[in-house]
């Protein structure tokens, strides 16, 4: 990135104290995503939580032209602290139209009001319900469900896959991880990843903000090293879905995401990695004409065009949907 562009990005990306400013960020995101009601074809649904104490909202987006049978089960970004189905509605509507797939966006609980593992539990619950009863998603087969997530949502998608395997559940056969968080340390002095040092200060997401998000999501520093928070720490990555890993060139999370892809591949999984040149963190929310977005969706569509792998049988049997 040339010096002028770097200066402009820094100018229009004010630094935040996420510990204090997250409520303001939430309000700003919702105002920014305000939508004409008639523009999107959406249906709001709910899934009962595992313990029956609350309902998990799911917003379903119909593409203008449905070209594929897959349903993309989407977990939004926002550091586990910001973002929701309202603020991600434009991005999900674009995802539906640009892939020709139905998109189901999960409104999982956010920290710090609901710290780890509340949001993860919601995501696992929705994934299990739809995988066990795909007709609820309007499809015939569970292998037509693809897990997708960006940033913290990419982290959740990866961890949902790990959790399902640990439960003896066959899980999804494919996942698309967009610049996910996979490690617990984003301090430039101690991180093992060069991108944290190269891109953690000048761009729209800083290492300080990532650390603040993690501390709000997981108050216990010991728990942050758990594979359920930092999937790169998992000792066993076998049996994971076919994975498309998409990273951004100027993103501090780039190297840890690509390291996770390498670890998945080393464990015998099918993995494809695509680094979007010139892109910053969070580009999935850019306007549809943006070069980074078009680049990413060309790769996503090619990945979706591949035949899904065979789905393993469940060790524990199917769970009834509620």
TrEMBL record:
What's one Pfam family the UniProt record gives for this protein? Abhydrolase_3
Gene3D superfamilies for the chain: alpha/beta hydrolase
Specify the Alpha/beta hydrolase fold-3 domain's residue ranges: 72-284
Output the Gene Ontology terms for molecular function.
Answer: hydrolase activity
- Keywords for this entry? Hydrolase
Question: Under which name does UniProt file this protein?
Answer: Alpha/beta hydrolase
Q: What organism is the protein native to? A: Leucobacter tardus
């Amino acid at each position: 990135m040339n010096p002028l562009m770097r200066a402009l990005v820094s100018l229009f990306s004010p630094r935040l104290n996420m510990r204090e400013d997250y409520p303001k960020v939430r309000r700003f995101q919702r105002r920014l995503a305000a939508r004409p009601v008639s523009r999107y074809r959406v249906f709001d649904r709910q899934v009962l939580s595992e313990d029956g104490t609350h309902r998990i909202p799911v917003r379903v987006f119909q593409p203008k032209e449905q070209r594929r049978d897959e349903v993309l089960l989407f977990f939004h970004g926002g550091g586990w602290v910001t973002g929701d189905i309202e603020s991600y509605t434009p991005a999900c509507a674009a995802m539906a139209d640009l892939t020709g797939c139905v998109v189901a966006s999960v409104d999982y609980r956010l920290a710090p009001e609901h710290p780890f593992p509340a949001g993860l539990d919601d995501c696992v619950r929705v994934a299990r319900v739809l995988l066990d009863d795909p007709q609820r998603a309007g499809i015939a087969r569970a292998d037509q469900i693809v897990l997708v997530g960006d940033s913290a949502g990419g982290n959740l998608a990866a961890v949902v896959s790990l959790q399902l395997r640990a439960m003896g559940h066959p899980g999804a056969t494919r996942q698309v991880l967009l610049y996910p968080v996979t490690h617990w340390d984003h301090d430039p002095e101690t991180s093992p990843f060069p991108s944290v040092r190269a891109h953690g200060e000048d761009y729209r997401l800083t290492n300080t903000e990532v650390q603040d998000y993690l501390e709000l999501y997981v108050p216990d520093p010991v728990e942050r090293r758990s594979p359920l928070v930092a999937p790169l720490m998992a000792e066993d990555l076998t049996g994971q879905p076919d994975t498309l890993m998409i990273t951004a060139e100027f993103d501090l999370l780039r190297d840890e995401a690509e390291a996770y892809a390498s670890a998945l591949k080393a464990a015998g999984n099918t993995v494809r990695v695509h680094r979007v040149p010139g892109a910053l963190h969070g580009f999935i929310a850019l306007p549809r004409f943006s070069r980074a977005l078009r680049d990413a969706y060309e790769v996503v569509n090619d990945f979706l065009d591949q035949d899904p792998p065979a789905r393993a049988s469940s060790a524990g049997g199917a769970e009834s949907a509620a």
